[in-house]
Amino acid sequence: MRLSDRDPQIGADELIESLVPPPRFDHVSFDSYLPNPDEPSQAAAVEAGRLFAARVSLKRKKWSLFGSRTEDEGKLGLYLDGGFGVGKTHLLASLWHAVPGPKAYGTFVELTNLVGVLTFPEAVKRLSGHKLLAIDEFELDDPGDTMLVTRLIKELTAQGVFIAATSNTLPDKLGEGRFAAADFLREIQSMSSKFDVVRVDGPDYRHRGLPDAPPPMSDDELQSKAASTEGSTIDDFDDLCKALARIHPSKYGRLVDGVSAVHLKDVKPAPDQSVALRLVAFGDRLYDRDIPVAVSGQPLSELFTDEMLRGGYRKKYLRAVSRLVALSR
Question: What's the predicted TM-score (pTM) here?
Answer without folding.
Answer: 0.78
